[in-house]
Amino acid sequence: MYISKQWLKQFIPELETITDEDIARSLTMKTVEVEGVEKQGEFLHNVVVGQVLSCEKHPDADKLKLCRVDIGTETVQIVCGGSNVREGMKVALGKIGAKVRWHGEGELVELVKAKIRGVESYGMICAADEIGLGDIFLKQDEAEILDLSYIEAPVGTPLADALGQNDVIFDIDNKSLSNRPDLFGQYGIAREVAAIHKLDLKPYEVPTIPKGKGLDLSVSLEAPEACLRYMAVAIDGVEVKDSPVWMQERLRAVGIRPINTIVDITNYVMMELGQPMHAFDVAQLARNKKQGASVLVRRAVEGETFVTLDEKEHVLSSEMLVIADQEKPIAIAGVMGGKNSEISDTTKTIIFESATFDAKSIRQTSTALGIRTDSSTRFEKSQDPIKAEVGLKRAVELTLELCPNATVVSSVFDEGVWQVAHGPLQVSLKFIQEKIGVEIPRAEILDILTRLGFDVKEKQDVFTITIPSWRATKDISIPEDVVEEIIRMYGYEQVPSTMPVASLTPPPKNALRALEHRVRELLAYEGSFTEVYSYSFNAPELLNGVGENLDDYLELENPIAKDRPFIRRRLVYGLLEHVEKNVHRFDTVKMFEVGKVFSKHEPGDAVINGEPERLPKQDTLLGAVYAKKGDDLPFAELLSVFEQLCERLGVSAQTQKSPVFEIAIAHPGRYADIVVSGTVVGYITELHPAQQERFGIPYRVALLEINLNDLLSLVQEKEQYEPLSLYPAVERDIAIVVERSTEHATLQQAIQEVNPLIVAVELFDVYQGDTVGEGKKSMAYHVVYQSKEKTLEAGEVEKVHREVISMLEKKFGAEMRK
Amino acid sequence: MNVEIKNLKHKFQQAIDEVNDFIKLEEVYQLFFGRKSGELTEIMKNLKELSGEARKEMGKLINEVKTELEDIYSKKKVALQAESWKNIATTEAIDVTQPKIPATEVGHMHPITQIQQQIEQFFISMGFMIVDGPELESDYYNFTALNMPPDHPARDMQDTFYIKGHGDWVMRTQTSPVQVRAMQDYGVPLRMLVPGRVFRNEATDARHEHTFYQVEGMVVDRNITFGDMKGTLEALAKHLYGEETKMRLRPKLYPFVEPGVNGEVTCYLCKGDGCRVCKQTGWLEIFGAGMVHPEVLKAGGVDPEEFGGFAFGLGLNRLVMLKYGIEDIRHFMSGDMRFLGQF
Fold this sequence. Notes:
The complex is a heterodimer.
Chain A: E1 2-4, H1 5-11, H2 20-30, E2 34-39, E3 47-57, E4 65-70, E5 75-80, E6 90-94, E7 99-100, E8 109-110, E9 114-116, E10 119-121, E11 124-125, H3 159-162, E12 168-172, H4 186-197, E13 217-221, E14 227-236, H5 245-253, H6 261-273, E15 277-281, E16 293-299, E17 305-307, E18 313-315, E19 321-324, E20 329-332, E21 336-337, E22 350-357, H7 359-369, H8 374-379, H9 385-402, E23 407-408, E24 413-415, E25 425-428, H10 429-436, H11 442-451, E26 455-459, E27 462-466, H12 479-490, H13 511-526, E28 530-531, E29 537-538, H14 540-545, E30 566-567, H15 572-583, E31 588-596, E32 599-606, E33 614-617, E34 620-628, H16 634-649, E35 653-657, E36 666-676, E37 679-687, H17 692-695, E38 701-707, H18 708-712, E39 730-739, H19 744-752, E40 758-767, E41 776-785, H20 794-812, E42 815-816
Parallel strand pairs in A: 13-16, 28-31
Antiparallel strand pairs in A: 1-12, 2-12, 3-4, 3-6, 4-5, 6-11, 7-8, 9-10, 14-22, 14-23, 14-24, 15-22, 16-19, 17-18, 19-20, 20-21, 25-27, 26-27, 29-30, 31-34, 32-33, 34-38, 35-36, 36-37, 37-38, 39-41, 39-42, 40-41
Helix pairs in contact in A: 1-4, 2-4, 5-6, 6-9, 11-12, 13-16
Chain B: H1 2-18, H2 22-33, H3 39-46, H4 52-84, H5 88-91, H6 111-124, E1 129-130, E2 136-138, H7 139-142, E3 162-163, E4 166-171, H8 177-186, E5 190-199, E6 211-221, H9 226-241, E7 247-251, E8 257-266, E9 283-292, H10 294-299, E10 308-315, H11 316-324, H12 337-340
Parallel strand pairs in B: 1-5
Antiparallel strand pairs in B: 2-4, 3-4, 5-6, 6-10, 7-8, 8-9, 9-10
């Protein structure tokens, strides 16, 4: 929103004592961020009003013209390419030394005497966008120069003066002002500036509306819950023409395009006070019995269509509030007026509306119809009903001033039920000082609140604070709100920094978070994996393609671009997509993610604590993927990294063949459950080779997923160590040929169980091939024998080793290899 | 025999002097000490023939000589060793700039994880607990409990993902819902920190991302002041950007705090003079904060008459982008190892 310094000056006569920078800084620090300060006329140094005396074709260029331009003190020769330049025209003349932006683009360039196609040119006839006026004067044609013929100022007048371009415009971030309905007008900001800088603010005085009759106007408020106050008055004899220059300048300064007297007046009041106004052309309204007009504030009829001022048709629903005559809606209340009652050049009689609509109702209607206007933006913030009356009076005052023949022709209607929540609030000095942490003196508190318009009485260190109507709609209602007023005016920078004082209680541990971080650190810094993040949302094409059942997935109501509506249940698909993005650049891709997934069918945290309804369960998973060019068994590498991780975590995990697979894209021969203390916490597998193409991955990929919530309860800190044996260990090797289906884990356990003297069984070679026969494999183990009591003799070891061999032969049909 | 022994020493010395490599040295050693026919060994064998005092005396003499010979031998060995290392500067020289082949693989933690851990550790050191909350959250905790009842205009400011079939479920738009959950679960006094993933339904571009990370902090206790909030935030700012960092606060509306502020810190790069990082302002806006609104305390089951507190929130993506000068927020979710490999 734009704030005009000239406009503020109307209300703060001493404003010139404050620099523009101070105004911007103090508003930013105490009220609302000033995002930009634009000094009008910045581009207009050395630009004057000129008049084209003659205009001839350039001897050597078809599109250029040779002009003689009167600039008051002299006549200069200018070469001009403007498509519309003609004799007698008043133009913006950039003299030598003026700074312009060629064709409205690029850096500013200082004009110098130039020869253009052999002819000397002493300056430039400017287009609007070349001198920073592009927003005000819209070009019809690319090569068009600014036509100032309408200007009365004599030639030679500096253009800034001629156009009234001597204002300073503050651009404030009103998006963050949703609690301050009072700051949506120049006067509200003026009040704030005056309070900050301790300057006098002129009261906003408006004359009473003269009594009038002539038009039989009736107003009925049928939906008082959606409209707190509805005021209206009719005026006859208005002249719809251009509004005066001063009004146009003000409106332009704050970014409003002038239209005509009546529309400009409604906008002017809105911009000045923050009170949206509307004017209806009485001639367009249905006549009542006495040839008068009836205004109804009612709910729309479901399905009713309505064409707004911007000529768009809307289908209304029964919750929406409209302004209607006896036959039809004539405005969507507080949002936008209708084409059917628009002010036109022929309008003679108008009805001014000044109302206070319910914020929620306006917001719902505006959202449902997708229309946001200056009016709806203001009403959404809960406007002050008192302002509706002030606004109406101001609009009538301006109308009578601008249209000398206008008269009020109805009584002033004032419907609705409302009251102002003035309070008062009782706030103690102690409360204020304790909340802030500073002993702000009582007098300063009184001064701050009074300057902001609060009425304050103080008795025995308790302030009785009456809230002004413009702050009472929903902004100030509790003592904490008053604290904010005091602290921001007092200055945040003046509050000394302290640290909270608390007892030295150690915080409860967050074991899951600790595990997440430990897993991340180990995988990244020991396992050389790279941590990635992926989106929580999946595309249906992907999920269908990999055999997921979409019924198991939660879905977004309003996904972005509709392409990824499903909420993830697994991390692996996101990881596989990331593999594809990297595998063409890197020979090895090792990635993991730790993140939450969402289980549609399992209950998680309470929707509201203490109530039975549950949100979906949201466990934290670890997912990891590994692919390497040339590695056709990535399963083994990933498993080894995982085993190393488990070792560090103090978890003893086993892989176990499983008849069912967690994911349909698993390699059926390379899939295992990961089991910790009898609980399946995840799985490890390879991507089915047939699925590689789907993901665009040229190599074999291993992947795993572990549920960290499940793992957490199984993680144990190491509590024991094995005392070192005093006696030497004896190592014997054994090589056997067994059926290929025989699992290492089974063999290892069987060997281990033969005798307590066997302290370790380590696999050191596996071979499958012609020499061992079809369907067979050769496995070689180091078997370590050791006693805790004595040095083992060769015979003792030999005896046990033979038991191992015979067990393997009997139990596994193993054949010894020599 | 006596003479023989004395000559032996001379003979050994001579033989050793002629030696100039380890093989020869061992040959000479064997010549004298060899088990079968070493000269000294032979003499010792002959000792058996003597008896009584003579044997004793001779034995002593032989031992003395033996010690001397071994001394000569080991000195020579040390000398040869030293000699052999004399030229390793060239014989064993390597290219010290040559890396190991193949290169050692190095893993990386995501930069947001790293800054999250850094901030967690900082607050843990001040006795804060680290709390987690659901990413798919109820409308109640995400909005209503935070003083944003249905139809509150501030809800519009946060483009929200809703869940199909569950009108009252959302993807959380902020980490703030955990404020109320934590008060309910842990009671007060409370010092807690909630880092986590949040979601906003907005189109992605270089500056906008629908999935990003925040850290939420809250302190609730008796006698908590605005000054305490300022002090805590200043401590964080200095932890992140150095001791000389200054902070300033500006008013800002967040429905769940009153008063509410925006926090800016002096730009870590230009120290406040203005540069490209701070867009010439000298300040970086890095957090929102405020004194916990009484309605939020009530929702958490806390009596606002007795307890008060403050809360603050930071965008982690922004912190990381500022720190490294990252130009495009989409890198974080891209999984691009060229990006992630830099951290």
